[in-house]
Amino acid sequence: MIVEWCSQVDVLAHPAVGCFLTHCGWNSTLESMCLGVPMVGFPQFSDQQTNAKLVEDVWRTGVRVVVSENGGGDGTGGGTAVGAVVEGEEIRRCLELVMGEGEVGEEVRRNAKKWKELARSAAGEGGTSHVNLKAFVDEIASYS
């Protein structure tokens, strides 16, 4: 089915979604983390390279594509330069790594689930995000 627009959050929340091939913009990264969906990062520019590095190296909730050495990138996967090429086989490798039964896939899925639970806990009643938002609103309301 092809539609003009759909809610990315609704798509990511669907139980059939096993992985998210994403440019790693901050909103997409945060939505994926909050919904526990593992990622394959395909950063293009700006904050996307940093976010993809966090996804792969810090939170360990996904992997980054590696730019082809002969395609205009440096072959390190640290982001895609203008004119850089990411081969289809590289996309396949990353998807199989994240969704497969190997050690990396299991770790990525386990970490994605952990971050989902942490996000729910923080946003829930009494969680850190809930408490801080309430304190902020109370502070603003005190000025009226």
UniProtKB/TrEMBL annotation:
The lineage of its organism: Eukaryota, Viridiplantae, Streptophyta, Embryophyta, Tracheophyta. Transmembrane segments: none annotated. GO terms for molecular function: anthocyanidin 3-O-glucosyltransferase activity; quercetin 3-O-glucosyltransferase activity; quercetin 7-O-glucosyltransferase activity. Pfam families: UDPGT (PF00201). Keywords: Glycosyltransferase, Transferase. It is an enzyme of class 2 (transferase). This is anthocyanidin 3-O-glucosyltransferase. It catalyses: an anthocyanidin + UDP-alpha-D-glucose + H(+) = an anthocyanidin 3-O-beta-D-glucoside + UDP.
